[in-house]
Design brief:
By secondary structure, this protein is an alpha+beta fold. The protein has one domain: Imidazole glycerol phosphate dehydratase, domain 1 (Ribosomal Protein S5, domain 2), CATH 3.30.230. It contains four helices and eleven strands; from the N terminus they run ββββαβαβββββαβα. The strands form three sheets. A five-stranded mixed beta sheet has the order 1-2-3-5-4, covered by helices on one side. Strands 6-7-11-8 form a four-stranded mixed beta sheet, with helices on one face. Strands 9-10 form a two-stranded antiparallel ribbon. Strand 9 and strand 10 form a beta hairpin. Helix 2 packs parallel to helix 3. The longest helix is centred in the last third of the chain and has 20 residues.
Length: 203
């Protein structure tokens, strides 16, 4: 088993390998929304693509694992790896806006996401899906993915699905809102002069 990280500016590469999964993630916070995602779970790919496109991050994810048993291990490890990449790309988090939020509709679905890149891990997910599966992705694993991202990324994450009846729409709205919230929070505030956005002077 091995874990390696190679940060460079606001970019990072993460590799995570266990007995159950193998995941690699490349992330550029100052990208253009380009993505290459392959996890073997179509809906998971789709949700990660929303993060890249609507957050204007460049993201490459290659993942494989024991999804024939249960997608849980792979979904969680993708969340861990993406979170670690985010943490590494942010570095000391100097000059960032730190906070971000977004409310995103998708037809009948409405999602609210708020994030704080303050270095403290916390996740609160409120999502009442009416189906157990969206494609090949169990809807219960969506919360696991978001919680793993928050934990490894050292961020506070609140997700509320305020309305919706179609599970696909609900999940997609949540990840589009996540993308916009992260985009706002990771933005460089020119007026800050590169200072750490905390009265403690450390995040």
């Amino acid at each position: 088993m091995a874990n390696s990280r190679r940060p460079s500016g606001r970019k990072a590469s993460v590799q995570r390998e266990t007995r159950e999964t193998k995941v690699s993630v490349d992330l550029d916070l100052d990208g253009r929304g380009r993505y290459e995602v392959s996890t073997g779970i179509g809906m998971l790919d789709h949700l990660l693509e929303q993060v890249a496109r609507h957050g204007l991050f460049d993201i490459t994810v290659n993942a494989s694992g024991d999804i024939d048993r249960d997608p849980h291990h792979l979904v969680e490890d993708v969340g861990i790896s993406l979170g670690r990449a985010l943490d590494e790309a942010l570095g000391e988090r100097r000059g960032i806006a730190r906070f971000g939020h977004a409310i995103v509709p998708l037809d009948e679905a409405l999602a609210l996401v708020a994030v704080d890149l303050g270095g403290r891990s916390y996740a609160s997910i409120e999502a009442d899906f009416q189906r157990e599966m969206v494609g090949e992705l169990p809807t219960e694993n969506i919360g696991h993915l978001l919680s793993a991202l928050a934990s490894a990324g050292r961020l506070s994450l609140h997700v509320r699905l305020l309305a919706g009846s179609d599970a696909h729409h609900m999940a997609e709205a949540a990840f589009k809102a996540l993308a916009r919230a992260l985009s706002a929070a990771t933005r460089i505030e020119e007026r800050s002069g590169g200072e750490i956005p905390s009265t403690k002077d450390v995040l």
